[in-house]
Design a protein that fits this description.
By secondary structure, this protein is α/β, with parallel strands linked by helices. Helix content is 35%, strand content 19%. The protein has helices at residues 13-24, 57-65, 107-123, 142-154, 170-184, 205-214; strands at 27-33, 45-51, 83-88, 92-96, 127-135, 158-163, 195-196. Strands 1-3-4-2-5-6-7 form a seven-stranded mixed beta sheet, sandwiched between helices.
Length: 216
């Protein structure tokens, strides 16, 4: 029986407060990594954000942390070319992965960071969940399928986070959700809830914070 992939419910007060405290505490950039040998010690739970270029990943990280310039947001797709590590206090790493898909960079460089992304997803033992960001205006594209399949093969649980929800009219939202649910049903590593977010409006941020805080 196919999973229905409902929208994640609003967190209860305790979960919401736990998530708020995690992101209200120290959030520090640790390092940018260009090779697996440069990863920090695997001494805490990690969650990672993956998404095609220009999906709004940096904006979402900044909105979650309440820090406008923590992650580098750019109108130029493919600017983030490293695995960027952020420490959430002493308990979690939040990992910003290189954008995949079309990128304004030389092809050899694109190939190098895409290979690094695949190595990380396949080999990081402390990675508890990947959050795959999908533009709510477009749904899951072919370029996303490669990452979803890689997460399946690596047995890494991933959860779909729809970004830019404020850009989608209510009448168009159900069509996008239907498309996304149909695609996710084919992936055994998919977590059976979708989180709908807007970095600009703040929608879904409490839910995403609480979800990250619960992953240990």
């Amino acid at each position: 029986m196919a999973l229905p992939f409902p929208l994640a419910p609003e967190p209860d007060q305790h979960a919401s407060e736990t998530g708020r405290k995690l992101f209200a505490g120290p959030v520090d950039f640790v390092k940018g990594v260009v090779a697996m040998s440069g990863l920090p010690p695997a001494d805490r739970a990690e969650v990672c954000f993956a998404g095609r270029s220009n999906v709004g990943k940096s904006s979402l990280i900044n909105a979650l942390t309440g820090r406008k310039a923590l992650a580098r947001a750019s109108n130029t797709p493919g600017r983030t070319q490293e695995i960027n590590y952020f420490a959430l206090g002493d308990s979690h790493y939040l990992v910003d992965l290189p954008g995949y898909g079309y990128a304004n960079a030389p092809l050899p460089k694109v190939a190098a960071w895409q290979a690094l992304l695949k190595q990380y997803l396949s080999g990081r033992v402390t990675l508890r969940r990947a959050f795959v960001l999908i533009d709510a205006r477009h749904g899951i594209k072919e370029v996303d399928e490669e990452i979803l399949s890689l997460l399946d093969s690596a047995a890494v649980t991933f959860q779909c986070v729809l970004t830019k929800a404020d850009k989608v009219k209510a009448k168009d939202r159900e069509a996008v959700l239907t498309q996304v649910r149909g695609k996710l049903a084919k992936h055994p590593a998919a977590f059976p809830e979708i989180i709908l977010t807007s970095s600009e409006k703040g929608d879904g941020l409490a839910t995403l914070r609480a979800t990250i805080a619960s992953v240990a």
